[in-house]
Amino acid sequence: FAHSDADLSDETKRFALSPTDIALLNPNTKTCPIFRSAQDAELTKSIYRRVPILVNESKGEAGNAWGISFRQGLFNMTSDSGLFRSAEELEARGLKLEGNVWRDEENESAAFLPLYEAKMLHHFDHRWATYDEAGDTRDVTLAEKQNADFVVTPRYWVEKSNVEERLKDKSDKEWLLGFRDICRNNDERTVIASILPSVGVGNNAPLMFFDKEPRQVACLVANLSSFALDWVARFKVGGVHLNFFIAQQLPVLPPSTYASSAAWTDGATLGEWISSRVVELCFTAHDLTAFARDCGFDGEPFGWDAERRFEVRCELDAAFFALYGLSMDEAAYVLDTFPIVKRKDEAKFGSYRTKTRILELMAAMQSSSAAKNV
Length: 374
Prior knowledge:
Number of helices: 14
Radius of gyration: 22 Å
Number of strands: 11
Structural class: alpha+beta
Low-confidence stretches: none
Strand content: 5-15%
């Protein structure tokens, strides 16, 4: 950014965006992103020339390749508060807690589902945070994550029938895709999306609904969780909310991308290669069994292995840098703009290993492509 008059003479910070450029970057709203440098602007424009936005309103149905619709969660945390019940209230009514669902032993159809809030979710992790007995949130421990039976405890519960009513005509799946509404462009990461069970969801976790196959949705989750997309999102988020109009104008690969294969997918389609990794990352607990089954996986939940998860996430990030058309130098530049990720890596491992590993995997992918073309 320009912080003084002297910055106006810095050619890296002084650049122009034409009306055509702005229409390319934000075709729905025609608003100007906030770029830090000419390099950021040029690289972002190059991405938008290759990758369409999630929803282009000017193109009607053709501009919504994912058939996506949004909802501001299922329950407003203020106006719907009369529907919320505490554990004490439900216990006093004689209900029994099974996992994180309260059930009536005399009426099997009567149940109260947990009300998830955005802060309980993170990348490929529907068990990021939980409430304790004092009503405060805490991080889920490693031991808890490694227990496939562990479920998070919410602050409130909502009646199952109310959840079903609000999902009617929206989804018949036993899982949902949501993202955090509250975010900043200087956070460790900005776009945080997650698969979660079909439960009550507060308005601070907007939901996406689709008419696509579950494996395709798994690929979308990977795309939304990638450094490549997150880097672009940082230029779009000027406040503390990832509004629908921002999400709709992010560059997102269309479903058709995943029908093809790549030299580095070993004969599998991109959809098969990516979705299998997303299932491995997301399906770490029994409460997402339905998601795994819908994606074609019939096994038990995957163990929570931090090193394995790191490797799989790096594979996905390398893949999306390649699919977005970035060179290794451009990917390295993008990764250097995530200072908190870098600082945490250096503090724990002595180097920016996330960047190193992603670039190693990109190099291997390029070698595979080169060998295939010989």
